Amino acid sequence: QMIQRHIAAGDLAGAVTIVARKGKVAHLSALGVMDLESKHPMTPAAMFRIASMTKPVVGVALMMMVEEGKLHLNDPVSRYIPEFRGMKVGIAQSSAAQANGGRGAEPQFYTVPAQREITIKDLLTHVSGLGSGPMGNSDIAKVARKEGEKLSDYIPRLGGTALEFQPGSRWTYSPGAGFETLGRIVEITSGMPLDTFVRARIFDPLGMKDITFWPTDAQMPRVATVYARGPNGLTKTPMPNDTFGRNVYFRGSGGLYSTAEDYIPLGMMLANGGELNGKRLLSRKTVEMMSAAHVLDTLPGRPAGEGYGLSVRVVTNHAARGTMLSDGTYGWTGAQGTHFFVDPKEQLVGVLMVQTSMQEVQREFEDLVAQSIVD
Q1: Could you identify which of 15, 104, 264, 329 might form a hypothetical disulfide with 325, taking C-beta atoms 3.0 to 4.6 angstroms apart as the criterion?
Q2: Tens digit of pLDDT for each residue in 315-324?
Q3: Displacement of CA 146 from its chain's centroid (Å)
Q4: With a threshold of 0.85, does the pTM exceed it?
């Protein structure tokens, strides 16, 4: 009813919701349409750009490498990518951008040496400062990825960009650079391209058949249209014309497309302590480490009641966060509105697939699923 209400209000074109409890799917619903023009009905087979919900997939891949002794969480990134040695931190100067109301002008800054090297754990928890704001992003724009370049071509150049702050001093989301660098570290330590690794080690064992960095011609008609909300209702967001070359450049930060039914096994595996349907991907203790609050809400940049784990947000105080979900619940969100959570205490997993960003729907989804538990 909540989803239907938002569709009727013109907030969403359509949605697929799926919920699992104690290892079984308890709810699956597809409502609305995939595209407002064609009025093609939304179905469970619809595929969505899941954007940053790609990051927990890379988090699982990294933890597999930790289990195999290929890397340690506190290793400096420079151990795997030497160009990251001796990074600098940007210090903002009063700039033309500030005088201009922040529009158009490049940020003015000088750099000082980083007090310590950035680590794999810094990247996983978004406390590295890499690609986390205007100073670093202006440097990243100067070394932008060129068409046809792979992670191995592009990522080393990020080592020459300014960090936004001293590593570990605050939490600021790194939308792209941080997890794209982690994707490259998975490639280096596993000896496999990122798409090959996640397919062989995560997707195939869990039966995640449709999830992909690059939809095939057969899958493309099932990709739901992305819409932005505005004063005139929903406006179609054009599909990018392979600007990120997903078939050669595997964006660990946000490149995956998936159906709801294809994503939920990842959450079910985590809720079940690293194993699903007889296939073990991680040990129980590794999942506990991944979902622990490594960054507390006392660090600048984190909201009340919500810490950060290794690639996932973590509810540390459900009353302070204002959520029905148990303390210890973890998950993440995508830029186009997709959202998932794992509540280990209740053995509960929820996945919301939409293509319009709306935090209100995500919070309502969490609470309505949580309050429906009656046993």
Answers
A1: 329
A2: 999 999 999 9
A3: 23
A4: yes
